[in-house]
Every structure is written in structure tokens, then in C-alpha cells.
Amino acid sequence: MPEEKQERSINKDIKWIDWVTDWMDNKIRIPGTNIRFGLDFLIGLVPYVGDIISFGISGLLLMGMARHGASGMLIIKMIANVLLDTIVGSIPIFGDLFDLQYRANWRNLKLFEEFYEEGEHQGSGCWVVMLILVIFTALFFLLIYLMWSVLGEVWNFIIT
């Protein structure tokens, strides 16, 4: 469960990251409980489109943290949080319940604070990023090949 809002020592230039994260993951509390959620949960209730919008907002937060000095290794950990949240969150009903508890943006903010204040999560993640780019490039070309093959078969079926 996220801690109650406390004064953070993060640079004022990146205060917007804290503000957006709060709205996305913790802003709303169910009365009479300690259960908190945010716009990420509400947006995620809209099938597929909501998950894409949440993924985009999480990506913007990640880019903001990267521009303000997050290490390569930290970015990789954050990407893993966002991907897990997006993939599991896209499963109907179960994903929505998962979104209530996981809070990828809040986790990423905590990782960034540890990096920023305590110097944790150092190291280059360049090799992992390169591996991911190679895998995505291969998947992209595989997808194009499969689409070309399927469209060719459909075209042949239509002609004959």
C-alpha cells in the first residue's frame, strides 16, 4: 500500500512527475477503507483503449524521468513495471483488479526517488535496450512477413 503523501525532496523541475503519478495511482480513496486508486484504474476500465492511454501516460512519465538523469538500469526496471502493468492490466476483470494493487507509476516514482536521493539503481542498461530493440525489430519484420503471406493467400483465394 502506498505511503501517505509526504513532502518529497525531488527537484522542483520534475514536480509534475510526482503530481501526475499521484493522479494516476493514488488520488482517490474509497471512503472507510485504505484502498486508494487513481485515473489509471478508471481509464483501464475502458477495454483496450484505456490500456493504451494508460500505457502512453506511463511512457511520458518514463521519458520525463529519463530526461532528468535516470540511469539505464533504472529505466529498464521502470519499463518492466510498465510492461507488466500493461500486459496483465489488459486482461478483462483480472487486469482491472491487478491495476488496483500494482500501481506501476507509483513504483517507478519510488525507484526514481531512490536513484535521485540515495544514488541507488546505478549502471548502464544499454545492452538490454539494444537486445530489446533487436527483438522488436525481428518481431516487426516477422509481422510484416506474416501479413504479406496472409494477404497473398487471401488474394489467391479471391482470384481463384
Describe the 3D structure.
The structure is a single chain. The chain has about 160 residues and is mainly alpha-helical. It has two domains: about 10-120, no CATH class; about 125-160. Helix content is about 70%, strand content about 0%. The chain is built from seven helices and two strands. A two-stranded antiparallel sheet has the order 1-2. α1 (about 15-25) runs antiparallel to α6 and α4 (about 70-90) runs antiparallel to α5 (about 95-100). The longest helix is centred in the C-terminal third of the chain and has 34 residues, at about 125-160.
**Helix-strand category:** mainly alpha
Form type: flat
> In angstroms, what separates the terminal alpha carbons?
61 Å
- What is the mean predicted local confidence, pLDDT? 83
Count of helix runs: 7
Give the C-alpha Rg.
19 Å
Q: Order of strands in the sheet with the most strands?
A: 1-2
Strand content: under 5%
Largest sheet: 2 strands, antiparallel
Task: Write the H/E string, N to C.
Answer: HEEHHHHHH
Please give the share of residues in helix: over 70%
| Low-pLDDT ranges | 4-8
Number of strands: 2
Number of domains: 2
Features:
mainly alpha, two-stranded antiparallel sheet, single chain, 7 helices, flat, 160 residues, 2 strands
Question: What is this structure, in a nutshell?
Answer:
By secondary structure, the chain is mainly α. It has helices spanning 15-25, 39-44, 49-67, 72-89, 94-102, 104-118, 126-159, and strands at 28-29, 36-37.
Record the SSE blueprint:
Layout: H1 15-25, E1 28-29, E2 36-37, H2 39-44, H3 49-67, H4 72-89, H5 94-102, H6 104-118, H7 126-159
Antiparallel strand pairs: 1-2
